[in-house]
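Worked Example 4.2. Consider the chain below.
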Amino acid sequence: MVWSRTILDGILLCLIFNLTVAVTWIFIPCAFSNMLPKEIRLAAPPRKRKEVVILACVLYPLYLLIFAYMIVSSHLAGVTGFWHLFWTGYIEMFFINMGDLWGLDFWYRGAVKDKIMIPGTEHCKAWETKEWMKTLALPEHLILWPLLVCPMAGLIVAGISAWIF
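Applying the procedure from the previous section yields the following structure tokens:
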């Protein structure tokens, strides 16, 4: 594993992913209602089909491009062997995770709350930083991502890299 390349790629992917999600969240906040705390999900109006389609058209290609970049970058850096590829993918996805936690969930949501708040959810206590972090961000980013999402990313990167190269 090439640590410097892994860290720089992780930072780059973190910025690309989180800036893309941040811009999308500003323009279509209602599309993200299913990803928000339960109190907000229950108070939010139903998502429109157009919002769901736009969100899918942003997120699916974004994930495909992220994985393609991770695979090609690790190959170009000369990373070989299943476990080296696995840990490269895991660490790069963990950077995305931490950027999401601290960049989107903590700082960005608090800074632009008025622009991303879904109409009808203004009264929800879950928009407050402490409640948001306790009910959504910390469990998701300190348990779900490190134990499920990051290992899956590592397996995908290692599996596809070993299969292609």
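The radius of gyration is 17 Å. Residues 68 and 157 are 9 Å apart (CA to CA). Compare this with Example 4.1 before moving on.
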